[in-house]
Automatic annotation (TrEMBL):
Pfam family, one: BOF
Extent of the signal sequence: 1-26
Record's keyword terms, sorted: Signal
Entry annotated with the keyword Signal: yes
The protein's name: Uncharacterized protein
Amino acid sequence: MPKRHRLFAAPALVLWFTMGASIAVAQYVGPGVIPRITVQELQSRGVHDQQGVLTGNLLTPEGGDFYVFDDGTGRLRVEIPKKVFPPSMPIAPQRVVELTGELAKEGRDLSFEVREMRVQQ
């Protein structure tokens, strides 16, 4: 292969692999993807340490890091450490939030331990 073809082929291959990888990552839905879930689903068939993403509203504080969360299918006690709250953004009950975390199930007591919060605009 002439030298000028090799100089063109290398960048073309890099570009081709880069574009292909970004498309594959954007469509990935296999293991490791945290599913969206409802309070009702967690209450009826949730298991300890089950991961999920909840979307709804924080209604009232219960003291410490605990709040009452409502997604329209039910209410659940959620634990949100202060470091998870977005800085300088008050969260009113009318504001929709997305909570990523896992279910803590001890006997009949359920709570959702939040590790990430996104505020929807």
